[in-house]
Design a protein that fits this description.
Oligomer: single chain
Radius of gyration: 18 Å
Order of helices and strands: HHHEHHEHEHHEEEHEEHHHEEEHHE
Number of domains: 1
Largest sheet: 10 strands, mixed
Distance between the termini: 42 Å
CATH class: Alpha Beta
Number of helices: 14
Length: 342
C-alpha cells in the first residue's frame, strides 16, 4: 500500500471505531473493574515528573536520575535487569533535531539506568519509513553516541518475532506479533519526542510504540496498523506491551504539521513517569493541549491509566508553569479543538 493510501485510512477514529471504543468502555465497566485488574499495573493514580532543561548541553543524565528518584525507583528494582530503550526515530534528517529524540537523551537514559545497576541497556527501534536501520542511525546522529558508549542497537523491524494475545481488543488486529528482543527485556522504556501529529493529534510515549511493531509483519510505514486504525492500534499495542517507563524529550519539540513536517519548539522540558498514559496527558498540558480531547487518550482513561489531572501527582515542575502552547492547525482534523483552556 502506498503512503497516500495509508493516509486515507488514518484520519482519526472512524464513527464505527469510536462506537466500538465506547462499547468497550461500557463493557469493562459492566464487569466490575475488569480493566483495573487486567490492564493497569497498579492503582489508577500516577506520578509524573517534569524537569526544566534549557538545552541538550545540560546534565541530562542527572535530570533522568532525579526523575527516577522522584518516581521511587531504587537500585534494588533495576539491579541486574535488561533494559530496552526505544527512542523515536521516525524519519531521520541530518540537522533536523526536532524530528527525532536527541542522541544525548538516549545517552542520558542509558547512563541513568546503568547507574542504578542495570545488567545491560540496549537500544531498539523499528523505524516506520526507512528499511535501512543503520542509515537511520547515521542520519540521526545516534550511531556515534552508541559507538562511544558501547550500547548495542537492535533493528526491531527484523529478526525473530513471537505471537502474543492482544490485551486491548480495541482494533481488529487480533494477536500481536512482537520482536523477540523486546520480549526478552525486563524493562521497556518508551523514549519519545514531544510532537503534534496530523493523524493522531499528538505523538508522545504511547504512539512511540508503533516503532516496536516489526516491519516484516506490519509493513512500512506500518501500513497494517494504519488500516486497523491508528488510535485503536495505539491502545492495543500499549495494553499488550505495557512499557515500564515513559520519558519524553521536550527540550526541543515539534508543533504544526508533525510528526515530520512541523516546526521546532523550544519547550525546554523532560517529562517522565511509569504510566505512559499519565505521562502523555501531562505532556499534552505542557503543550497547551487538553488530553481529554485527544481521542486515544480519552479512550485510554480509566482502562490503561489515567489522564485526569486530579489523579496525577505532579513532581518537579507543574505543567502550568512550563506550559508552552504548541501551534495547532485548523485544517488538520485531528488537531481541531485540542487547545487547553487557560
Amino acid at each position: 500500500m502506498s503512503v497516500s493510501d495509508a493516509d486515507k485510512h488514518a484520519q482519526g477514529l472512524t464513527r464505527r471505531q469510536a462506537v466500538k471504543l465506547a462499547a468497550a468502555a461500557a463493557g469493562l465497566a459492566a464487569v466490575g473493574g475488569l480493566a483495573a485488574t487486567s490492564l493497569w499495573r497498579g492503582q489508577p493514580e500516577a506520578e509524573v515528573f517534569i524537569a526544566k532543561a534549557a538545552g541538550y548541553d545540560a546534565d541530562l543524565a542527572d535530570v533522568v536520575r532525579r526523575g527516577l528518584a522522584e518516581l521511587g525507583v531504587t537500585p534494588a528494582e533495576i539491579a541486574g535487569k535488561q533494559v530496552l530503550v526505544k527512542p523515536n526515530l521516525v524519519e531521520p534528517h541530518a540537522g533536523a533535531g526536532h524530528i527525532n529524540v536527541h542522541p544525548l537523551m538516549v545517552r542520558a537514559v542509558a547512563e541513568a539506568f546503568l547507574a542504578l545497576g542495570a545488567g545491560s541497556v540496549v537500544v531498539g527501534e523499528g523505524a516506520g519509513h526507512r528499511r535501512d536501520a543503520y542509515l537511520v542511525l547515521e542520519e540521526s546522529g545516534l550511531a556515534e553516541v552508541l559507538a562511544e558508549d558501547r550500547l548495542a542497537f537492535y533493528d526491531l523491524n527484523s529478526g525473530p518475532v513471537a505471537r502474543r494475545p492482544n490485551a486491548g481488543g480495541f482494533s481488529k488486529l487480533g494477536d500481536l506479533w512482537l520482536p523477540g528482543r523486546l520480549l526478552a527485556a525486563d524493562i521497556v522504556v518508551s523514549l519519545a519526542k514531544m510532537k503534534t501529529h496530523h493523524w493522531a493529534g499528538v505523538t508522545l510515549a504511547m504512539k512511540n510504540l508503533f516503532g516496536v511493531m516489526p516491519g516484516v509483519v506490519y509493513g512500512w510505514p506500518k501500513n497494517v496498523l494504519h488500516f486497523a486504525g491508528i488510535e485503536p492500534s495505539i491502545l492495543d499495542i500499549n495494553a499488550t506491551v505495557r512499557p515500564h517507563f515513559a520519558i519524553i524529550d521536550g527540550i526541543v519539540g515539534m508543533d504544526g504539521d508533525g510528526p515530520i513536517m512541523g516546526d521546532p519548539v523550544a519547550a525546554g522540558v523532560v517529562v517522565m513517569g511509569r504510566s505512559a498514559v499519565a505521562v502523555d496527558a501531562t505532556a499534552c498540558r505542557v503543550m497547551g493541549i487538553d488530553p481529554a480531547n485527544v481521542s486515544y487518550l480519552q479512550a485510554a482513561d480509566g482502562r490503561l491509566g489515567t489522564i485526569r489531572a486530579a489523579r496525577i501527582e505532579q513532581r518537579g515542575e507543574s505543567p502550568a508553569t512550563v506550559r508552552r502552547d504548541f501551534a495547532l492547525l485548523d485544517y488538520v482534523p485531528a488537531q481541531r479543538n485540542l487547545r487547553l483552556a487557560l
